[in-house]
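For the sake of clarity, the format in which proteins appear in this thesis is described at this point. The record quoted next illustrates the convention:

___
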Amino acid sequence: MEKMSRVTTALGGSALTGHTMHCHLDAPANAISVCRDAAQVVVAGRSIFKIYAIEEEQFVEKLNLRVGRKPSLNLSCADVVWHQMDENLLATAATNGVVVTWNLGRPSRNKQDQLFTEHKRTVNKVCFHPSEAHVLLSGSQDGFMKCFDLRKKDSVSTFSGQSESVRDVQFSIRDYFTFASTFENGNVQLWDIRRPDRCERMFTAHNGPVFCCDWHPDDRGWLATGGRDKMVKVWDMTTHRAKEMHCVQTIASVARVKWRPECRHHLATCSMMVDHNIYVWDVRRPFVPAAMFEEHRDVTTGIAWRHPHDPSFLLSGSKDSTLCQHLFRDASQPVERANPEGLCYGLFGDLAFAAKESLVATDSGRKPYAGDRRHPIFFKRKLDPAEPFTGLASSALSVFEMEPGSGSMSWFVDTAERYALAGRPLAELCDHNAKVARELGRNQVAQTWTMLRMIYCSPGVVPTTNLNHSVGKGSSCGLPLMNSFNLKDMSQGLGSETRLDRSKGDTRSDTVLLDSSATLITNEDNEETEGSDVPADYLLGDVEGEEEELYLLDPEHAHTEEPEYVLPQEAFPLRHEIVDTPPGPEHLQDKAESPHVSGSEADAASLAPVDASFSLISVSHALYDSRLPPDFFSALVCDMLRFYAEQGDVQMAVSVLIVLGERVRKDIDEQTQEHWYTSYIDLLQRFCLWNVSNQVVKLSTSRAISCLNQASTTLHVNCSHCKRPMSSRGWVCDRCHRCASMCAVCHHVVKGLFVWCQGCSHGGHLQHIMKWLEGSSHCPAGCGHLCEYS
């Protein structure tokens, strides 16, 4: 046993004393309930059904209600309740659908009193009327609630919730005839036990199953509900329409909720899975629990305050087979660990800063920072002196606002709406997106799209027919296709005349081209020769002997000391008539006598003169392949995507990922892609760009993202006529054979967009329903339900 601080509470002459303690059970517990004098607790589960006395130092086992030689499913309990008027009366809900009552005053060992076998499936909850000794209410997985009079053998009333299962039922403490029920479809219904044909009120409380509810012991109309959406909501039921008063966000599905006695705004919760702790919340401060109990090592299945007028003792049972009594004074306080400082940017650039009030108070006389565009605005809630843990996490908030227009994000919205991500060829997508970025003044992004088009749609191919343009026409090609040429000191006149005469298309009969076999070819047409694919194998080399001597080498007599280089065809401008230039050297006219020239070249005309400083390096092949595959640029594209993501432009990173698809997906890890997608989708949803967000999810290359729009999309539809759940075979009801998609306003079949109320299942054309609800809040079908369109 664990001993801690002792507390004594005076309750009308009697006193509750004790401390934090626990005891080990024989099996996991599913539910617990306390008798009215707070001296005993009953623990029920699949394999346990015992009563323990709560003594000052420990729990003491008093009675084992599982008797008999053969185990019975009637003893496999999902819930248990102890009557608050008769200390000898208990009721249990069995997993086989049986409701059992127990009379502790019977002299025999078997205390079983009555069995009610009307439910067809597991009974999830049983509840005694707070002021009627013989009225018992049950809620089952079969979707029905039954009211029993313990003086009769059968139920006196049956209530149909028109849902799959009932998760909880609770009689109102203040309203004699009213009880609340919660369902797996997220609805909460209020019933009058005198009218079993229809509920008094119904509303959708949670996004998912509602597992529990509890009426406030003091405020007549307050109802707390907890669901799978990890929220606890407090509803005001005294108004014409259920009004949400408070909402507490927890970290796991809420399995049980109980109001704390004598504390109007406090309630205790436990989770159905994952989280083993018990929390006590102040609904006015819903983000940090007021207290936390951490004794259990498995899921807590049942909680109960020991006495309806004592806020100090809390009892709990768990799947770790322990029964605990928690002393509120010994609870840990998460608020002590809360960080009172915080910093956050708003969607439009506003900066919010929270700090301890003590720091703000001591620093309140400082001069404003010169860079502040505006003085901070302080927001401070007036604290309640009676509120516990008041001074432990009290912060002052400062907000620095952006100047109007300085943080406009219109470019983001325009880009997201105008970008094309699929449905066209890659080249068109890149061109379109580049145009959009350019029109929005984002020139770097536009240039990136243009480069992507060049890489993946126009691979790096430089045809051999265009190699001569790299020099003759001043091409700016950045690819190192051949060895370097020393064109220093080239005459400007030569270059200009070359371009002039080439455009005229003049021909010269004395212009020659030599092929690889050194055969003389007369150029009759410059333009035809320029486009020729015949490779040229002439060599221009640096002169070692006389200055302007040019050699035309025969491949058969090439020098063995130096490697042979072959100049690509027409690497220089073609021969043409040269105006106002000196005649060629005389020794070229005697070229036929040179030992380096074959006899067949003796009749060749003279070559054009070349300046002595014009140094030429012979070229025979390209340093790189003329075709560069897109994979060559993969590393560069990945670096580009990371650059944009690090700059905060996840829009560009995700757009390129979608457009390029498998071309770059394999080079970026899945976790990084998922992070980019998640960030971009979050931004789109903040700007309410729902269609673009759904398109990004649909086109994403990440498996974790593409399944986002496939989750939580199941709709459970009931027939608007007979209230029976619709099957998946169409819009015609199997029971009444009527079409469920009938407009309640015009009474015609809806063939397009259909909208319906989740409360009463009636609906119709979107425009008709919208127009109807503008003038009336009642259902147009006349069912009396108060429909709401949001």
Q: What stands out?
A: Residues 757 and 763 are 6 Å apart (CA to CA).
